[in-house]
ATP-citrate lyase/succinyl-CoA ligase domain-containing protein
Amino acid sequence: MQKCRLGLAGLVQKPSIYSVPKTGARWLTLYKSQALDMLQQAGVRVRPSQVVSTACEAEAAAKQYGYDCSIKTSDSQEQAVQRPGQAAAMASKMLSQRAKAQLVVAQRVEQVGLWYLAMTIDRENYCPAIVVSTRPGHVQWFDFGFSEGITDQVVQRLAQQLGLSAALSSSMQALLQGLYRVFRAKEASHVEIGSLALGANGSLTCLDARLAFDPAAAHRQPVLFAQRDTQHQQPAEVEAEQHGLVYVPMAGGSVGTVVNGAGLAMATADAIALHGGASANFLDAGGKATRETMLHAFAIVARDARVASILVNVYGGITRCDMIAQSILAARHHLAIALPMVVRLQGTNSELGLDMLKSVHNGLYVESDFGRAAQLAVQLAEERRAEPSF
């Protein structure tokens, strides 16, 4: 299972080829400063840096680093600081352009090279892997055993392939062992160092870091997941998470969707697009949906002013379709949802659920065919949007 393979430009996409999904469950990703702190606590060498929120704090940090440092926001390029007063001036300008921004002042690190390194999951071979790029367009993968971790043999293989000196091999082993401690203890799915500085003496210093964690680990890692910053999430997304729902608003859409299962949700969005429409959201109710969580799901989708129709597409396995039908009726009654709704139920108790919905005719449409259901939802949305507003 332990092997090395090479990736050349055009064959293996360069970072971030291991990026977390953009739909589906809300993965936890930490700020770079949080990620670096975690790696440092695990024994990884990181460059000194400070998070600041005022110009005075930025100047004080720059002075501490002997005015041999850089300053940046979370989404900007680093700017070099080389003399007194420069950090304060730069910070004032950055803070005036971004409300509630946090800045990072980082000490400059002498380097003779800059590498990329990540520890992630090799999904083709069902094992963790080290991914290294020492030059643009050249990526190497080194699989290893999860239980064994970073052994001497793993480091030797990597050192041989990369042509590392004894000093650099020692630094690499210490780095990988620290990354693996975080990878395993914190149940990370992805640990990435986008800029790994190579020192003339064989040292390896992390200039930045990105950590991603699967939401399935949330109940085992409560302290870690408490670090999630919901400030930049839409209130509807935060509300959905609180009720075990996965909700992601999508630009330009008018068809709201309530679906169980990420795969079916993506297929539903594709079907809507195929018939000339666009989804207003991705909402996965999951396999453990209850009447209460479904009511929250309908409330979240219906509150979106862009939504002109709702497509409910449920394949019942663990989820019972009669419960979904009860939720639909309750949502229309208690939440006063007047939007046209297309319902497709398949699977467990689907006949029972469909029987419940047969008596409702005003604005509720039952359709068993996937394509026709999507087409009807698009048509109803277009008709509603064409209605004059007063």
